Amino acid sequence: MERLASFSNDPFDKPPCRGCSSYLTEPYVKCAECGPPPFLLCLQCFTRGFEYKKHQSDHTYEIMTSDFPVLDPNWTAQEEMALLEAVMDCGFGNWQDVANQMCTKSKEECEKHYMKHFINNPLFASTLLNLKQAEEAQHNETAIPFHPADDPPRPTFDSLLSRDMAGYMPARADFVEEFDNYAEWDLRDIDFVEDDSDILHALKIAVVDIYHSRLKERQRRKKIIRDHGLINLRKFQILERRYPKEVQDLYETMRRFARILGPVEHDKFIESHALEFELRREIKRLQEYRAAGITNFCSARTYDHLKKTRDEERLKRTMLSEVLQYIQDSSACQQWLSRQADIDSGLSPAVPVPSNSGRRSAPPLNLTGLPGTEKLNEKEKELCQMVRLVPGAYLEYKAALVNECNKQGGLRLAQARALIKIDVNKTRKIYDFLIREGYITKA
């Protein structure tokens, strides 16, 4: 059992017993498993096994008492506290009254014990000295360390940055010229005197009220500038540049509404739209991969590299380099010249120009063993072989186009391309085939 307790002899200083609500006197019991706050019981409630909520009678416990020696074997901790309280109440040197208040020690015992352990004790004196030195060191007057701050910046008065900051003075948190800077001029000639008429007095009061409203507007604008960090313009511009151009345009448009939303809500709004823009751009990129037949990111990296190379070559391409491709073929060269003439005159070229540098056409797809081949007729098999489309995908696209045609009463090529997310040339061939065979009708 641990003999620990609050050394105060006053039962009113301790919380009451949780069982009977009586004031606790030592010894009493403290539950070691419940709390905080401490779960305290008197000996009567403890002996009858009092239980309450989470507290059980089989919990470990501590006996709280102060009848153990601290400084002297003949003095308990409770008597030590009683001696200090008596000296505090009766005064140092009034040992007879101190002994009368303690009731357990004589006048000589109280004086001898107090002088030995609290006045002439070297350990106690050194402890007081250390505490005094620590307190003095804590309150030593030292120079306040100064570190130059850059936010907000502190430019010279006549500098360009000071003009950009509208004459803001950071040390005073004020401006050289306030908003509505001459609002005080309307009050310079106002003087309230006793012989003013009621109308004149009301007029002066109205002028003061107007001045107060102008001061409120001035403070409101200062608060907006402070809350949104508009003083440090350079830092504000750096934060704005981290967004894409589309989001920067939105940022510029929504800046005038920032005073309505508040700083945190405004930043959340811009961040959410920046995230939406990133998601839309990523979705568009993935859709481009899917339209090109790419199903993994390894192929996507190769596609991006080749696309970048093609774009660079297209930028470097000139009319001379294009005509040199057909210099060996007179008919192709003639077609290219006709095509350029049509383009210059604003007409769409009717004849495509054969390219000697184009890729060889892929061989027809072998449908042997592919699922769904048995569901196709000969013409459909020929179509799948030419456009290199597996039978299962063709049947799925065919069903989608036929269903949409039945709903709409007709189908256009643009609608077919919106339904089938594959190469547009393949979509055109499937669309023409289904119209030619009578599966769908053109809208």
Automatic annotation (TrEMBL):
Subcellular location: Chromosome
Keyword tRNA-binding tagged: no
Residues in ZZ-type domain copies: 12-69
Positions of the SANT domain: 70-122
Domain SWIRM: 356-443
Stretches for region Disordered: 351-372
Transmembrane segment boundaries: none
BP-aspect Gene Ontology terms: chromatin remodeling; regulation of cell cycle; regulation of cell division; regulation of transcription by RNA polymerase II
GO cellular component, one term: ATAC complex
Coiled-coil residue spans: none
Sequence ranges assigned to domain Myb-like in this UniProt record: 74-118
Name of a matching Pfam family: Myb_DNA-binding
Keyword terms of this UniProt record: Chromosome, DNA-binding, Metal-binding, Nucleus, Transcription, Transcription regulation, Zinc, Zinc-finger
GO molecular function: chromatin binding; DNA binding; transcription coactivator activity; zinc ion binding
Xref: PROSITE patterns: MYB_LIKE, SANT, SWIRM, ZF_ZZ_2
Gene3D superfamilies in alphabetical order: 3.30.60.90, Homeodomain-like (1.10.10.60), Winged helix-like DNA-binding domain superfamily/Winged helix DNA-binding domain (1.10.10.10)
PANTHER family: TRANSCRIPTIONAL ADAPTER 2-ALPHA, TRANSCRIPTIONAL ADAPTOR 2 ADA2 -RELATED
Protein name in UniProt: Transcriptional adapter 2-alpha
Organism per entry: Anseranas semipalmata
Source lineage: Eukaryota, Metazoa, Chordata, Craniata, Vertebrata
